[in-house]
Write a structure and sequence with these properties.
Elements: H1 3-29, E1 37-39, E2 55-57, E3 74-77, H2 80-84, H3 97-111, H4 114-123, H5 130-142, H6 147-164, H7 169-184, E4 202-207, H8 214-227, E5 232-237, H9 244-254, E6 259-262, H10 269-282, E7 287-292, H11 300-313, E8 321-327, H12 332-345, E9 349-353, H13 363-371, E10 375-379, E11 387-389, H14 392-400
Parallel strand pairs: 4-7, 4-8, 5-6, 5-7, 8-9, 9-10
Antiparallel strand pairs: 1-2, 3-6, 10-11
Amino acid sequence: MPTETLLIIAIIVVVILVVGLGTAFFLRGRKTPPGTYTTTRDANDPAPGSDGGTDTLTRPGDAPAQDADGGGSLDTAPAPEDTLGQQDVPVDVPAPVLGRLARLRARLVKSNNALGKGLLALLSRDDIDEDVWDEIEETLLLADLGSEPTQELVDALRERVKVEGHRDPAQVRAMLRTELIKLVDPSMDRSLAADRQPTGPSIIMVVGVNGVGKTTTIGKIARVLVAEDKDVVLGAADTFRAAAAEQLATWGARVGVPTVRSELDGADPASVAFEAVKTGIDQEVDVVMIDTAGRLQNKIGLMDELGKIKRVVEKQAAVNEVLLVLDATTGQNGLNQAKVFSEVVNVTGIVLTKLDGTAKGGIVVAIQRQLGVPVKLVGLGEGPDDLAPFEAEDFVDALLD
């Protein structure tokens, strides 16, 4: 066969291959991006901005999908290296848990030991009469201990003073320490459900009223989990407070944790929560933490919505932990909040913030007694690592030091 003929055949084959590959690539690029789907999150909950139809959501890594109005979509806030297009952008290194505990105990000793000092002074008097016992009872009530625990503690101290005496300061301190630890109850399970489950990630919802520091608390918990080498995804389901999603994404980015959020102001929080859990499942992370909008415990409609968020999330995975964030300075009002939230979403643990300054240590006992739910985490400052697991004996020792 002549050389010219072979050359022509080779050119024709090359042209056919190029045209075929180009056509396949073009058609592939016109397909619906993977992971994009349409669905209503609940039968009685149309997507925001629609007339009862479906809302289009996009998982991380896909092209953003607009909603029916051309408005917002759900996306994952990128870590700093994604934003800047490089892989060596440093992120914060959270403090280890042990160091954090030591620092928090030191702060508690300085800021919140009036209760312990007052009791030690009263119990060390040469003569403890009824007036002194009245002062002891008043001190405990002012510390937000609650009437029932106060009476229990006073009765126990009365009995021990009769049997053991009360003049030796060391003996008085040991006696008071034993009785206070009993009230705080070290037997309660204070572990955080932050281990990956056999069926997928652990799901943690965080709830509470406005102003208690929910979003900040989630950011601090994320730091704790990252310090324990856990993979975390955050869900910004607080869609009613301006800049709440941005605040949460900033906390996450500081430790390299992605945040699922909506681009649409006032978006349906249940949809955001649903997508955050789906992202966590797809990426096989250890923990998904969901921020929720602050709401007063006496607003029935908002509390019903909170219950709905939990129900929607549970269509994909069980909620393993519901943390209620309380401001320790609110005292008895915090107890009322705790009771209502627990009825709606079955609270499994308490996070006490601002347990310094004017906070009264007795609120720990009162909340646990009323709900039967343990205080699991405490915050004593504004710093990013000022959050630590609650330890009953360390707490009492700090009060008495």
